[in-house]
């Protein structure tokens, strides 16, 4: 077996392989031997002691060695990970990867190479860390029809939003705290702008709905515009704000929606109680009903646990002369545009303090067939504000409504627009 990368996750994989060697051999039916570890710099200090004789900077030579039959990739990114995986598969070697970005961008190529070369491709660690999620979708629910996948799949953003809610911190303060604790990178863009969650949503949707979905298909919004005022407003209504990945089959079953964005959810909803850097995902299927998967969504040891589980599965398959499940895209459902997505909305509008304001605002909502469920008039003078919650409406209809509201002479600003999710889940 060859390991590509020995950072936070890779070093933990090495540790677990060493500490659990006897148990893993018993579970597989043969010992798991590490033939080499490819790294960028040989002299770098690592979290786990690694035999220097195993280290190499020639990753391509390592993955093509005759004594390697499983390649574990935990370096991340698109290149050189893609080239190394394809080189390994071209020689019939099976691959275990945690690379969500690569799978979401070019999964078709990777899955195709596995199929063409009779190799296994396992990637449980690419979504939700230690949480067993992909295998239940691929195997346990293979006989069911998934309707929706809804969840928190990024620990960094969940930590930030949780701190904003629990301590009243601003976005900037919560982000700095997350960085100090190691939950957020020095450049947190992939997390706070939703790129990480979007890649995971693409993988989840592809498996759940037997269709090919890429990161480019996912509607993505981050959390950088969430303010303390938004969090306070949600709290006052009995809601909490979370960054959600939502993959849902359309009512007619002919298309799917895949989106990542902040949303208000009721505090009674199980996802509202997911604190700090934890992840949780709901899967709704026709026969199985509602299932919830919860646990550590990131971190070296949790992610390494998922990697080791895949290694054991692949090793068993090779000993038995079998393969795991291939990519399933037979349904070939198209991803419908965000404008067709129907949900509820919470809108805060700064307005002039004068008679007739509510009536004029309500007329615009009615004009675009957006029904108002509740409305609150708050403040006086320069602080006058309308807070509205709609019934379910399409994103396109709501966008047209907001655009026209901004042109009203009585509207100073549309302070915030937030989707509302989860009311239908107990």
From TrEMBL:
<dbReference type="Pfam" id="PF00742">
    <property type="entry name" value="Homoserine_dh"/>
</dbReference>
<keyword id="KW-0486">Methionine biosynthesis</keyword>
<keyword id="KW-0560">Oxidoreductase</keyword>
<dbReference type="Pfam" id="PF01842">
    <property type="entry name" value="ACT"/>
</dbReference>
<comment type="pathway">
    <text>Amino-acid biosynthesis; L-threonine biosynthesis; L-threonine from L-aspartate: step 3/5.</text>
</comment>
<dbReference type="InterPro" id="IPR019811">
    <property type="entry name" value="HDH_CS"/>
</dbReference>
<protein>
    <recommendedName>
        <fullName>Homoserine dehydrogenase</fullName>
        <ecNumber>1.1.1.3</ecNumber>
    </recommendedName>
</protein>
<dbReference type="InterPro" id="IPR001342">
    <property type="entry name" value="HDH_cat"/>
</dbReference>
<dbReference type="GO" id="GO:0004412">
    <property type="term" value="F:homoserine dehydrogenase activity"/>
</dbReference>
<dbReference type="InterPro" id="IPR036291">
    <property type="entry name" value="NAD(P)-bd_dom_sf"/>
</dbReference>
<dbReference type="InterPro" id="IPR005106">
    <property type="entry name" value="Asp/hSer_DH_NAD-bd"/>
</dbReference>
<comment type="similarity">
    <text>Belongs to the homoserine dehydrogenase family.</text>
</comment>
<dbReference type="InterPro" id="IPR045865">
    <property type="entry name" value="ACT-like_dom_sf"/>
</dbReference>
<feature type="domain" description="ACT">
    <location>
        <begin position="346"/>
        <end position="419"/>
    </location>
</feature>
<comment type="function">
    <text>Catalyzes the conversion of L-aspartate-beta-semialdehyde (L-Asa) to L-homoserine (L-Hse), the third step in the biosynthesis of threonine and methionine from aspartate.</text>
</comment>
<keyword id="KW-0028">Amino-acid biosynthesis</keyword>
<dbReference type="Pfam" id="PF03447">
    <property type="entry name" value="NAD_binding_3"/>
</dbReference>
<dbReference type="InterPro" id="IPR016204">
    <property type="entry name" value="HDH"/>
</dbReference>
<comment type="pathway">
    <text>Amino-acid biosynthesis; L-methionine biosynthesis via de novo pathway; L-homoserine from L-aspartate: step 3/3.</text>
</comment>
<keyword id="KW-0521">NADP</keyword>
<dbReference type="InterPro" id="IPR002912">
    <property type="entry name" value="ACT_dom"/>
</dbReference>
<keyword id="KW-0791">Threonine biosynthesis</keyword>
<keyword id="KW-0915">Sodium</keyword>
